[in-house]
Design goal:
single chain; Ribosomal Protein S5, domain 2; Alpha-Beta Plaits; four-stranded antiparallel β-sheet
Amino acid sequence: MTEVPRVVRRRAQAKLNVFLRVLGRRDDGFHDVETLVLPLELHDLVEATPGEGLAVEVAGARGGELRDAGGDDLVLSAALALAARCGVDVSGGPGSQGATIRRDKAVPVAAGLGGGSADAAATLMALRELWSCDVSDAELGLIGARLGSDVPALLTGEAVVATGRGEVVHPVHLQTSFWVVCPLPFAVRTPDAYAWWDDGGTTGHDPGVLVAAAETGNHELLGHCLYNDLQRGVVARHPEVGRVIEVCLEAGALGAVMSGSGPTVVALARHLGDADRIAAAVPGSFVTSGPPRTMTGYGVV
């Protein structure tokens, strides 16, 4: 009887930033921020199977985008970091363990939606199980923080307010909300977006009212409160972002804002039908919701 290879699957949930407040540049070159990270139903799928050495495969509707962008080594970095912590030999030689990691891409690439960080988080979770690593959630978060500022938030499987450079997370309970996601056909490098903020950017208002509105499901108020301190600098160089925000608002969105370092615009809708109507006004956009109803624990499929 042929043995069926073990397969561990995890959803890699995309995210949007309901607000992004930049507090200032740090001595280490990063920036202190405060942000509400909302995981979305939109997700990639990461699948890990036993193998010798490490191999990363890319498939799915947006796999070509990742290849065109030159690939993303964050998943491989995540695998190597966990292997080093757990003492797993991934050299590919005799007796080595390793894994093949397959990414089924559905999240737009380099779009401010955390796709690469989500894939890295899902890789850490999948390989922890595949390799039977004795690593706590807290330690996995520390490993994730060394990979990227968004990874710890995306490891939690829930909405969080993130502080520090993004690695300090505080879970919050949010009501379901519907969003229109509007990708744009160009990329914005995160270091560039922060450098533009350094060149005359300002720090937004205290987000207390916004967080309370999100927690209570007061989406009318929430829509008025959306903001992103990086948006002004990006719009100055890419006015298309501002025009998409205007179109979303004219179509009836409660609010619209750039997510993360951009360029994707996300628009808050009253309900699913309203979201469909707004999406019809913005070519190439689509509808999703968050927090994800499909998530059980740490992205288990």
